[in-house]
Amino acid sequence: MPAYVLAQGRVEDQEKVNRYLAGAGGTLAPHNAKVLVYTETPDVIEGELAHNRTVLIEFPDMAAAKAWYDSPGYAAVRGLRQEGAPGTLLMLEGMG
What we know:
Shape: globular
Number of domains: 1
Number of strands: 4
Oligomer: single chain
Strand content: 25-35%
Largest sheet: 4 strands, antiparallel
CATH architecture: 2-Layer Sandwich
């Protein structure tokens, strides 16, 4: 069953975000992940959005998503995202 990582944040330090993106991109392929959405201009049709930068990544399953998050490669750049674009990160199990 597929799993998804949904991240929402606000860019506070573009240099750190750029370094994060440069380092994080290569960590996805070993976990068979693909970025489905990357936007800073979501169309909010109900409610209020806490952070406009939204990223949705698909993984084959929850084990792959957790393995990516805990991988040494991602751990090495994760702090750049947390500092440069603080927000919320969710892991969601898809429907089978």
